[in-house]
Amino acid sequence: MKNSLIQIDFLKTPTDDSTTIAGLKKFWEKVLPIILSREKHFDKIWKSGTDEEIFAELIFCLFTPQSKAIWCWNAVNELAKKNMILYSNEGNIAKIIKKVRFRNNKAKYLVEARKMFTINAKIILKIILKEKLKSLKDAHELRKWLTKNIKGIGYKEAGHFLRNIGIEKNLAILDRHVLKNLKIYDAIKEVPPLLNEKAYLETEKQMQHFSKNTEIPMSHLDMLFWCKNAGGIFK
Question: Catalytic pick from 175, 222, 228, 235?
C-alpha cells in the first residue's frame, strides 16, 4: 500500500441560498469548473489508480455512514501512513479511526472487505470489479452486487464508491444534502423516512426525472448540492 493516497482538498466556493430552479442553474454555471475538475479526477482513479487506491475509496465509503466525510478520509489516510489497511487487525484499526462513528463495526467491515478482495496479501479489487462488470448487465447491477456482498455497504455507499472511482456517474448518492435539496426543489414530495431498496430506487428515478427537466446532469447534481449546502465539494 502506498503511504500517500490521492489527496483531495476541500474546495471553498460561494454558497447560494436560492430555492428556485433558475437560481440553482445559475449557481451550477458558477461552480461547473470545479465539478468538471472533480469528474476528471474520478475518471483518472479508474484509468490509472492502483488497486490499493481503489480499495482506499471503498474503505472511505464504508466509513462514511453517519460520519463526516473529511474525518473518514483523514482516517483512511492515517491507516495508509501506518501501513495498517492491508496488515492490521480490526482492534488496532478501531483505535486509529476514533472520529469515525461505530468505529468497531467499521473496522470489522474493513477487515472483511480486505479478505474478500485479497490474494496472497495483494489487493486485486480492480481486477474483480472489471470481471464483475463483464459478467453483469451494467453498473446498476454492479451496485446491487456490492450491496449484497460487502457488509456495511448500502445503495448510497455503493453508488458513492462507483462514482469516486470513475466507473459510473449517473447513480444517485442519496445523502442528507441531496435529499434535502430534492425536497426544496420539489423533485420529491417528502424525504423518505426509511431508505430501503425500494424507496431508494424510486427516489433515484425522481432525481433522474429532475435532472432531465432541469438539464443538469445526474453526475453533477450531487456535487452541486454539496457546493450549495456545504460550501464546497469533498469527495
Answer: 175
Q: Which of 106, 156, 228, 235 is catalytic?
A: 156
- Domain ranges within the chain, ordered by starting residue: 13-45+171-233, 49-135
CATH of domain 49-135: 1.10.340
156 catalytic? Reply is yes
Which stretches of 49-122 are DSSP H helices? 51-63, 69-81, 90-96, 103-116
Burial class (CB in 10 A: 0-12, 13-18, 19+), 79: buried
Catalytic residue check, 175: yes
Instruction: Kindly report each contact of residues 16-20 with a partner whose C-beta sits within 8 Å and lies 24 or more positions away, as own/partner.
Output: 16/228, 19/184, 19/185
Q: pTM for the whole thing? A: 0.90
CATH dotted code for 13-45+171-233: 1.10.1670.10
| Residue 4: band (very low, low, confident or very high) from pLDDT cuts 50, 70, 90 | very low
Which pLDDT tens digit goes with each residue over 53-97?
Answer: 999 999 999 999 999 888 999 999 999 999 999 889 999 999 999
Q: Cα dist. 116→19, 35, 124, 134, 164 in Å?
A: 45, 33, 9, 19, 20
Q: What is the pLDDT of residues 183-196, one digit of tens each?
A: 999 999 999 988 99
Identify the residue whose cell numbers are 467499521.
106
Residue 207 has pLDDT above 90, yes or no: yes
Give me the pLDDT at residue 229, please: 79
